[in-house]
Amino acid sequence: CDVTYNEFVEHIHSDPDNIAFGRWTSKIGNAIGTLRLGTPIVLLWIFSLSFDRGITARIFRCRILLWLSPLSYPIYLLHSPIGMFYWVATRGPKKEFWFSDVYGYPLPVKWWEYFVIVTLSGLLGGIIDTYVTPILLPYTIKYYMWVAHLCCRWLKIETCCWNTETCCWSTVEREGNDTFTQIENMIKDLTGGSINRSTSLNHLGLDSLSRTVFLGLVHASIPGTTNKLTMQDLAKMDSIGTLVDFLEAYHTTEDFCITSQI
Questions:
Q1: What is d(CA 71, CA 83) in angstroms, rounded to the nearest whole number?
Q2: Where does the source fall among the domains of life (predicted)?
């Protein structure tokens, strides 16, 4: 756009009592966005995607998008702070008025710099997703499981594991410790859906965040898979059966209980 930085500032602060946050507001935009009247339309669109038909579904099945999909959430989280640091690196350290609410303002950069910021966000997100998250997530899950275990003991909830040495993913109501059953319970907790060995991993409805959580659950449940099963490996697997066979090659079902670290 040919909008100068001063014009950008003037547009945002033209009315101190009604800051536009850099967006060209309108009655229709306010109704669809702020009042969330567009939500039913979006829900219908998402529901239609569950049938895996149509132009949008075909586009989303593209191999490049499937490969990039795990980066969508990291890019969402990182693009604003990276954009701010990019601004400082290219424009100088002077503090701008929008730094304190970087998520609320569109970054006033040139159009081609948008792709630079998104690329940097994707690279950093990929590094975190590949090398940091798989290491930290199992420990955070174990910690929260330990907290949940203590809460269960304190509240005396019968469905919790009462063994003081271990805390299992499955409760008293969940019988069976085979690999498939454990994976089935994880998927059911995340999506509420049922699976079988032929179920496609791409049809589970897991977004990028849920996939990361699911991968963390597997890492936390099966010691030794942290460096063996990666997000890229998970993306290449075509079915639940493939995943189960992969996991059974590394561990026996008796190891699905997590030994308490406390």
A1: 17
A2: Eukaryota
Residue 34 DSSP symbol: I
Model pTM score: 0.62
Burial class (CB in 10 A: 0-12, 13-18, 19+), 218: buried
Q: Which two tokens stand for residue 229?
A: 């099963």
Q: What pLDDT is stored for residue 58 in this prediction?
A: 86
**Residue among 169, 179, 154, 161 at smallest CA distance from 242:** 179
The count of other CB atoms within 10 Å of the CB of residue 125 is 23
Domain edges within the chain: 1-61, 133-259
Contact between 25 and 35 (Cβ < 8 Å) = no
Burial class (CB in 10 A: 0-12, 13-18, 19+), 177: middle
The per-residue pLDDT for range 39-77, each reduced to its tens digit, is 888 888 888 887 778 888 888 888 888 778 778 888 988
Instruction: Give the C-alpha separation, 48 to 1, whole Å.
Output: 35
258: which strand partners? Answer: 167
Structure-token pair, residue 167: 């805390």
Torsion sign over Cα 174, 176, 180, 182: positive
**Number of Cβ atoms within 10 Å of the Cβ of 234:** 19
* Residues in contact with 135: Cβ distance below 8 Å, sequence separation at least 6, in sequence order: 226
How many Å apart are CA 179 and CA 226, to the nearest integer?
A: 17
Q: What span, in angstroms and rounded, lies between the C-alpha atoms of 142 and 261? A: 8
Token code pair at residue 245: 């066979």
CA atoms lying within 13 Å on the CB side of residue 18: 6
Express each pLDDT in 213-242 by its tens digit.
788 788 777 666 766 787 778 878 889 999
DSSP SS3 for 166: strand
